[in-house]
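User: I've been trying to design a sequence by hand for this structure and keep getting stuck. Would you show me what you'd pick, starting by listing the structure so we're on the same page?

Assistant: Good idea, let's start from the same input. This is the structure you sent:
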């Protein structure tokens, strides 16, 4: 097996369906591990995402990233998003060393899957505030919220805006 194949196997194994994820979490809890969750689209992975993911990984033994499906992103962001389909986004975040497990959810928000996981800690961007929509679900499951202050100006939307600005002269010629 080549190094590339070995690496591929390691990160591909982190990507689980919802039933597989729930079974794996059951096993991890039986082994005494704590679980942190972080959800989002993770479209065009950038330094702001990495900051959030790194902070989330510090909160528990195991970090689970929950990605919105393509259809979910189209409903809550834009018909033009995501730029990168789910399979590609899952591979990008699974390749990060600090990410332990990756799954997806098709609802417009993560409350259903968070209720099933009952994380010890759910990490969210501070811009959503302490009273974010996940709070009640997480606390009912015995968990707590951890808010991370985002790095100003680092967002996928800002990157897309900058690309459009740079491309504008080409469209007008």
């Amino acid at each position: 097996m080549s190094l590339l194949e070995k690496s591929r196997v390691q990160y591909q194994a982190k990507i689980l369906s919802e039933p597989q994820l729930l079974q794996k979490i059951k096993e991890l809890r039986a082994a005494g591990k704590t679980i942190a969750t972080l959800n989002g689209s993770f479209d065009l992975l950038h330094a702001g995402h990495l900051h959030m993911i790194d902070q989330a990984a510090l909160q528990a033994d195991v970090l689970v990233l929950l990605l919105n499906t393509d259809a979910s992103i189209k409903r809550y962001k834009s018909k033009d998003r995501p730029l990168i389909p789910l399979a590609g986004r899952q591979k990008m975040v699974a390749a990060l060393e600090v990410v332990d497990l990756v799954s997806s959810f098709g609802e417009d928000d993560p409350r259903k899957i968070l209720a099933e996981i009952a994380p010890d800690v759910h990490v969210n961007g501070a811009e959503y505030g302490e009273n974010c929509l996940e709070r009640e679900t997480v606390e009912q499951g015995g968990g707590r919220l951890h808010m991370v202050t985002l790095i100003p100006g680092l967002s996928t939307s800002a990157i897309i805006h900058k690309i459009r600005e740079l491309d504008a002269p080409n469209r007008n010629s």
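That's my pick for every position. To get oriented when you compare it with your attempt: The chain has one domain: 3-171. Helices lie at 3-12, 18-30, 47-57, 70-76, 86-94, 111-117, 135-140, 156-171.
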